[in-house]
Sequence to fold (1169 residues):
Amino acid sequence: MTLFRVSVHIVPRKGLLDPQGKAVTDALHTLGFSAVADVHVGRHLIIETQATDAKAAEASVKEMCSRLLANPVTEDYEIEAVKPV
Amino acid sequence: MTLFRVSVHIVPRKGLLDPQGKAVTDALHTLGFSAVADVHVGRHLIIETQATDAKAAEASVKEMCSRLLANPVTEDYEIEAVKPV
Amino acid sequence: MKVGVITFPGSNCDEDALFAIVEQLQEDAVLLWHKDHDLQGADVIILPGGFSYGDYLRSGAIARFSPIMQEVVAHAKRGGPVIGICNGFQIACEAGLLPGALLRNNSLQFRSMPVTLRVESTDTVFTNAATKGALLTMPIAHGDGRYTADEDTLDRLEAEGRVVFRYVDSLGEPTAAANPNGAMRNIAGIANESGTVVGMMPHPERALEPLLGSTDGLVLFQSLLSAVRA
Amino acid sequence: MSATPRPGDPVITPALVAEHGLTPFEYEKLVAMLGRTPTFTELGVVSALWSEHCSYKHSRPVLKTLPTQAPWVLQGPGENAGVISIGDGLAVAFKIESHNHPSAVEPYQGAATGVGGILRDVFTMGARPIAMLNSLRFGSLETPRVRFLVAGVVKGIGDYGNCMGVPTVAGEVMFDAAYEGNPLVNAMCVGLMKEEELIRAKAEGIGNPIIAVGARTGRDGIHGASFASEDLSEENEAKRPRVQVGDPFTEKLLLEASLELIRSGHIVAIQDMGAAGLTSSSAEMAERGDVGVTIDTTKVPVREAGMTPYEILLSESQERMLVVAKKGHEHEVKKILSKWDLVAEVIGEVIAEPVYRVTEGSKVVAEFPGTRLVTDCPQYHPEAKESDEAVARRTRDVHAIAELPSERDPAWTLERLLQAPTIASKHWIHRQYDSTVRTSTVLGPGHADAAVLRVRGTKKALAVKTDCNGRYVFLDPRVGGRIAVAEAARNVACVGATPRAITNCLNFGNPKKPEVFFQFREAVYGMGDACRALETPVTGGNVSLYNENPQGAVYPTPTIGMVGVLEDAAHATGLRFEQAGDAIVLLGENSDELGGSEYLAWIHGVVAGAPPSCDLDGEKRLIDTVLAAIRRGHVRSAHDCSEGGLAVALAECCIADRAAPMGATVDLGAWPALTTRALLFGEAQGRVVVSTANADTVIALAKQHGVPARVIGTVTDAASGLRITTGATKLAASTDRLIEAYHEAIPRAMARAAAEAVTRDPALAGGAK
Ligand SMILES: Nc1ncnc2c1ncn2[C@@H]1O[C@H](COP(=O)(O)OP(=O)(O)O)[C@@H](O)[C@H]1O
Ligand SMILES: [Mg+2]
Fold:
């Protein structure tokens, strides 16, 4: 077994209202970052888990996401990286 | 000018109490993911911004982070990816 | 004395603060609009509670860029009294008026309840009429109240007598059980170096009338009055 | 002009009609009204307006039997909220609404947007919201799914109300397997205004502009989106959830902007876009004003490109309002909205021609004659028949149920009952609600039978409470309906307020089932009986039908939201014993009734028997007695007997405030004919426990009112615990054990990892909290 560090992004599903993203966009505009077109705010999770290999680590984190970490009604998730620690 | 999508991670500074990470770890253990050693929860921001090139996009998002997006007292940030949309 | 209460978008204790000053203390007070640059001659500024900008991103993070905050910071630099209550404390920290930050309660839940505070410092504009060690009861109502700073900052705050209030139990002890949010060293309120800027999570403006259960907030405003009139 | 299909619109087929929830009969009515085949847009509009939610097609005739008038009622049913006068030129607007189904799917957002919706109903009347209440029903707290729902719903309610700065001050929560899979989430809002600021949602003035204000319109919660137009078939779109996401920050801005707008004199009407969004708000405003309207969907500010008129009309995006402004004042309206960083766009006009017309640019996509769109909805008179099972359940002899061996010690039973989540302290819940913002909360959650809010600038205060025991209604809908109102009134009286009026939320199953419609009709009749007897007219409410799970309908649950008035806020009376040596007086009479009790349900797993009888005349006299005694200053505390009966009521008086417990020594020897368990745990109605230093005066007052009254014991300090003698049996419990049972039950259950609630918490990413 090896310890893997798995990075996960969980973001609000497209089309749903993202009030936080909107508030940050507006704030950035006020600060003068007028080139900003859009912002979305989600969660970034770093999960350290034991697994036999990277594939197994990824599979297990996927299950965590679909069972618990991401809200199936409002969020999408994406595994960004799987690395041995 | 091109539209770039910049991905940013903002994470609680190491050593600070991370009750969210702990709560998620505990919840995962309760659900049988006993191989999980540790979890950290941060924010994941996706910023779409116009810029002349990727370097300029990155520089501008860095400035956003230090001025607004990350709290210098408690958070660290990291630009994860800069991609043309 | 004239008090200016800032209304940010999402402030929701601004009316309460105004009511407290005008109706309870019979002093002059005005609401100041976040988009303005004019403090309208206010001697004292209240950064009220609420959810400025929805508290999106981080509590207080966006509010500190409001036009009026430039004037508030200048007022504070001139030695003008400022009190940040709840969201106002968060804004004051984000704006650099006070050190540290307020993070999510360690319970990860909003907490609304009365707490007991011990007065740790009477060297501030808002506590000079209080007695050191006195216990005060007033409500808290926040989700992000865990005061956090690095150890050096905490030590300096302690050494300089800038920890103003601590959460304590009914015996006056700063126990873990008495700490409603996991704040480091049970800190409920702090001051700047000159004692003119104070930030606190509990709500003194909700503790001014016997009908509402506590009058322990009065001492803050009495302190303020005597300081401003002196 | 007549509407023509848009290119790309689906063809109207019987299947499409069915998917829109219209029966063939209703579709024929629609075709007859139009004199032609409807366009796709028209079908969408009518499916929304003729839905149960908007049309009350099954319930209206029954609702019409409710009393709605009193000299103090300024606005009865028919508006966004009811309004009563409280004197001094002030008025109170209040309303309750359900968000059951959205909360079952996504508890956090479902509950949050429910709070947002009811807030808008109140502030569109011109009132500033001053209090929120909620009434929740869940399945057994033993299941992880229920704990997940509880955590999400409570957080959703808290986050929204807290961010708005409106204190959440009262409510009720019950747990029963009957609500498994179909929780009930009812939210009530109470607002305060000057009488002259009352504004109604009635479109008026030919040529006046119709303005959409607030948030932009997105593709949220569009019904039947699965079969809509082409761009919907894109892969990502197919997954589009029906949930709506709330934004309390925008709502706070909308609140301030709306009140400013109403006071500015630039507008004639305002209505929130709630269920069925733009469609129902515009059609209802037109119908109330008896005028025509025309709306151009290309003018509506949208969040996403390429939205069709169908989508724009049916979107349920939150935090939006529809305003009818005075002609020529558009600029002023926009100015006020832009001060609060909100958009306002003129999207249509009030017209003389009696039509409801929707255009897409210059092209008419929907057009209905006159105001028949709302009025032509078919009305149904479903069959009502009590089932044989219901009769058998009610007539079962519950006294024959054998006691458990442990029950020989009634302290065991009492502790068990105090742990029942329905009875146990709800502190875990309401400590997440800001109950003190607005600095007017005299008695907040957990301290009294109802919440008390002082009215700034006067001596007055308001008392508010929600109530309903669905189990009673299930066993006997008529009696249960009466009790729901009577208990709400009793609770309000116990804090010192005169009950004034109610709003109600009727949560029932499928009305097409005769036994469900029987429950509905009888419960409403029962409510009406009580409202007449107690002089608390109905000023509004909401109907939520089809609350079913695979096992059948939920308990019929007509939640009552009661508002009362205290002439002097100083009379506000809490429920806890305060002073050792005070006499404990029981007002009202004990009886041998056990049916429908929490005791039977929780200890024996039996839901049967007739619910306690309800003597409305007696309730009225009891309320008058309690009020007279409180106003003359003779009452230190008052608490009514409800779930768990007299023993639980006494225990709560001792330990409700765990920081300041008291004890009590009580002798119930005066009722030798009653069984111990009926005496201790039966739920006879019309009883209030008061503590007083002037027992003789209180008893004399009760006599004058014809209310039975008796000194049953003495308040002691906590060390003596709670001791009750019932002739043969003795109950003795330490306050520590009672506190442990009552205060730790729910926290302990919730600590058992409602894992999803923790890990999926949207606020983890730093949203409003
Ligand atoms: N149970 C009820 N008792 C009395 N009036 C009711 C009841 N249910 C609904 N109403 C009234 O019918 C009108 C329409 O209600 P509703 O459709 O729920 O309003 P909304 O447009 O806010 O959704 C309201 O004025 C409401 O008060
Ligand atoms: Mg409405």
